[in-house]
Amino acid sequence: MPLQRIDLLAGRPTGERQSxxxxxxxxxxxxxxxxxxxxFQIVAEHDRRSFLFAPEYLGIRHESPVFIQVTLxxxxxxxxxxxxxxxxxxxxxxxxxxxxxxxxxxxEVTKETWSFGDGxxxxxxxxxx
Length: 129
Description:
The protein has one domain: Macrophage Migration Inhibitory Factor, CATH 3.30.429.10. 28% of the residues lie in helices and 26% in strands.
């Protein structure tokens, strides 16, 4: 279960926000083997006063960035991660976000750090009772 957090400046049209969310999930499905139905997203809009970013970093200009933070199980290869970044830029570009404004952070965790409900750690190794 990747938990996808998408933060952006307020004011984008509803359809564009939906396209951005769809693009993030699609990129994870295509490059990281995430099941199609495994979609858990938080899309948060922020006003300019609470959305701070460098106008340029590492030679890349930022005007209206979309921050994407994905918490996912550890184990993806460097190749998968690089493919994910590339695919995110492509799909978000089609959704109206210039590639220079796509900022991504992956947070890798172990499987036992998840609970999908019912107070259980569904992916944790079985423990004696």
